[in-house]
Amino acid sequence: MVRIACEQPAFTEVIVRRQFERIVGREPSKRDVRDWGQALSDDPAVFTTMVQEWVLSPVYAERLQSLRLKSDRQFLRGLMVDLTGELPDAETEARARTALAAVADAGPLRSVIARVLLGRHGAGLPERGKVDAYALIDSLFHRFLGREPGPDERAALAIAYEQCECEPDTVALSLITHWEYQYY
Q1: What H or E segment, with its residue span, contains residue 24?
Q2: Mean pLDDT, the chain, as a whole number?
Q3: What is the pLDDT of residues 95-132, one digit of tens each?
Q4: For residue 183, what are the β-bridge partners?
Q5: Helical axes 107-121 vs 90-101, angle rounded to 10°
Q6: Are 172 and 123 in contact (CB under 8 A)?
Q7: Within this chain, do residues 77 and 10 fall inside the same structural domain, yes or no?
Q8: Which residues 6+ apart lie within 8 Å of 57 measured at CB?
Q9: Spatial separation of the C-alpha atoms in residues 75 and 57, rounded to whole Å
Q10: CATH number of residue 157's parent domain
Q11: Domain range for 115
Q12: What is the pLDDT of residues 65-79, one digit of tens each?
């Protein structure tokens, strides 16, 4: 059945259209799909070059100006890797995805899952007092959000960390339950 599907004339067009939409985040023109499909049919090795052109295009650069919500799978796998350094096993991922799919708004449940996983697996965080508040905040921003904290963010978290004597996992939890962590 797979062979029959792959041998259909429109198969390569379907593949390039889906990949373009997945990577670039918008629908390609019919002419581009037709041209790319023909090129892929002629030489499958051209796919790598095709993707490179998409990523270097102005359309892709424009897409980077807006965030896209992570799918449940992306969120769960990213969270597990961020906290444990490993992908979740198939059973754990399937159970969590089923739970997220069962609710209309998965946002609150994502926060609960993040809290439970952080509590269960930790994140390899240093003990309180063994690291400077600013160094901890900077490292957690890099680790979970992939960016530097803004001056206001750094100051607010440092005040909470020092005055409220919260633990490093509280700072980590504030980042992995933040709306920005839900997007890429």
Answers
A1: helix 11-24
A2: 89
A3: 999 999 998 888 889 999 999 888 887 778 888 888 88
A4: 69
A5: 150
A6: yes
A7: no
A8: 24
A9: 27
A10: 1.10.3130
A11: 67-184
A12: 888 889 999 999 999
User: In terms of domains, do 124 and 138 share one?
Assistant: yes
Q: How many domains does the chain have?
A: 2
Residue that finishes a domain, picked among 63, 80, 108 = 63
Q: How far apart are CA 158 and CA 136, in angstroms?
A: 9
d(CA 170, CA 112): 14
**Angstrom distance (rounded) from CA 137 to CA 157:** 7
Among 104, 80, 101, 102, CA closest to 90: 80
Residues 6 or more apart from 157 whose CB is under 8 A from it?
Answer: 133, 137, 149, 171, 174
Closest CA to 73 of 95, 51, 56: 95
Residue 58 exposure: Cα atoms within 13 Å on the Cβ side: 0
Task: Give the Cα separation of 27 and 30 in Å (integer).
Answer: 9
d(CA 19, CA 27): 10
What amino acid is encoded at 175 in this protein? L
